[in-house]
Design brief:
The protein is an alpha/beta fold and about 240 residues long. The protein has two domains: about 1-90, Conserved hypothetical protein from pyrococcus furiosus pfu- 392566-001, ParB domain (Alpha-Beta Complex); about 95-230, no CATH class. Helix content is about 50%, strand content about 5%. The protein has ten helices and five strands, in the order ββαββαβαααααααα. The protein has helices spanning about 20-35, 55-60, 75-85, 90-100, 105-120, 125-135, 160-170, 180-195, 200-210, 220-230; strands spanning about 1-5, 10-15, 40-45, 50, 65-70. The chain has a five-stranded mixed beta sheet. A hairpin with a 4-residue loop joins β3 and β4. The longest helix is centred in the middle third of the chain and has 16 residues, at about 105-120. It is elongated. The protein starts with a strand and ends in an 11-residue tail after the last helix.
Length: about 240
Amino acid sequence: MIHETSDYSQFDFNELNRGVDDTHVRRLTKNIKEHGLIQPIIVTADGNIIDGQHRFHACRELGLPVQYIIRDEMDMSEVVQLNNMSKPWSIMDKVNSYAAQGNENYIKLLEFHAECQEVDPKFSIRAASHLAQGSSSQASSKQGKGLSLGGGTWEFKSSKEDALKRLFALSQFKRFPFYLNNNFVTAFLRCMRTVEGFEWQELLKKAEMNPHLFMHAGNTQEYMRMFERVYNHKKRGVTRFF
């Protein structure tokens, strides 16, 4: 049964839901102004919005009645599925939601991500997650689950101190506009983890001396090859990266 009301105060927001995207609200406001609210919002019996918070904001901004359907409580996976039908959840939406549910790994990740963004506001949550565990690997956890950032099984596997050291090392390459590229970050962490005798300071020095060699690459393997060429440029002993 579809209900309708202009009493916006009877609704509340699910703290586990994603944050409101102002751009999406503006887009919906224009659409609803032209065509009306086509899809009712979904709420719990006590008025908690399960799905449709952007539509609610658009209706309230236009001063239009809100159409809504009352449903029983839903678990988070159902809320995500419903929201995906209108506007897919971003990785950041999901990380925020898992943190709001009390997942300590995601709470620590958000704290670390905030520190990453103090270094560079363009730091993505995915790049921060790679730095946090020292790898982009989706290897299994102790419980045998895949480490999926968007699936709620990601783990902050290393210490905060080690993560900050990796952040400092990566940030020294900030003068190169592609240093936050996901493939660059993955290759850089792989060098730190697997290349015997690798010193990121040496790579940085060679990169600054030979910027024409230190270039954007298409994938992780190409970045690794580029690192190897730059690292060994005019060097007597050759360090193998593969």
